[in-house]
Amino acid sequence: MRYGLISDIHGNLEALTVVIKELEKRNVDEVLCLGDIIGYGPDPEECVDLVKRYANVILAGNHDYAAMGILDISYFNPHARRAIEWTAGQISDETRKFLKERPLMMVYDDFTIVHATPAEPEKWNYILSLEDAADNFAHFHNQVCFIGHSHVPVIIAKDKRGKISVRKGQEIQLQDSEKYIINIGSVGQPRDLDPRAAFAIFDTETKHYELLRAAYDIQTTQQKILKKGLPYFLAERLAKGQ
Ligand code: ZN
């Protein structure tokens, strides 16, 4: 099976539309979404509709939960908080109910998917260091766990001696003797200094993983952000990819 993996769309319809076209072109069998469809961006409802149409599985992220009012947002930065409050007022009751029912983590086929961390998905911690990764390898029982949340793509491997390291590059051929935590990056708000939308393809037969990028019309998204009264900072960061 060839899986298209997407995460952290954050209401960015232009980025999502381009990514879905790319996945269709590349003949993936199924699309899996790792959460945060909404929050930050100007088209939350439209993005949920589109993801529902294309994705076979949809997990919840912290921004989805926040917009439902089931997560304390006092620790969010002011821009994120403002965007969450705005988003909460935009989504329909149907969407609210749908997002509320999404799982946080799942074993799918022969791999694990989760928005934040396999150790404590409901705490929304980040895996930002090898120490963070080390704590998490014991908490999933497949060869690979795909995550989102930080908006920074990374491949972290644990070899048979237990040594954990970051693997450079955008793709990897999984080795039977290793385990992996792979962050698939963000469709709608990349933060690795590459403003193009990030998405990934994982083939369970060949055990090949690849991160891909797609350019989209950032200006249109930025104009919508400003027109809808969302913070200027949220428009600015899209062009910088940070
Ligand atoms: Zn996110």
Can you put this structure into words, describing what you see?
With 242 residues, the protein is of the alpha/beta class. The chain has one domain: Metallo-dependent phosphatases (Purple Acid Phosphatase, chain A, domain 2). It contains 8 helices and 12 strands. The strands form 2 sheets. It has a 6-stranded mixed β-sheet. A 6-stranded mixed β-sheet has the order 4-5-6-10-7-8. The longest helix has 13 residues. The chain is globular and about 55 Å long. The protein starts with a strand and ends with a helix. Bound molecules: zinc ion. Zinc ion (ZN) binds next to loops. Zinc ion binds next to loops.
Counted up, domains total 1
Looking at the structure, the CATH topology is: Purple Acid Phosphatase, chain A, domain 2
Annotation, overall tally of beta strands: 12
Side by side, the strands of the main sheet go 3-2-1-11-12-9
Give the topology string: H per helix, E per strand.
EHEHEHHHEEHEEEEEEEHH
Please report the distance between the alpha carbons of the first and last residues. Answer: 33 Å
Which whole number gives the mean pLDDT? 96
Bound molecules: zinc ion
CATH-level-2 architecture: 4-Layer Sandwich
Could you name the CATH class? Answer: Alpha Beta
Total helical segments: 8
Largest sheet: 6 strands, mixed
Instruction: Name the structural class.
Output: alpha/beta
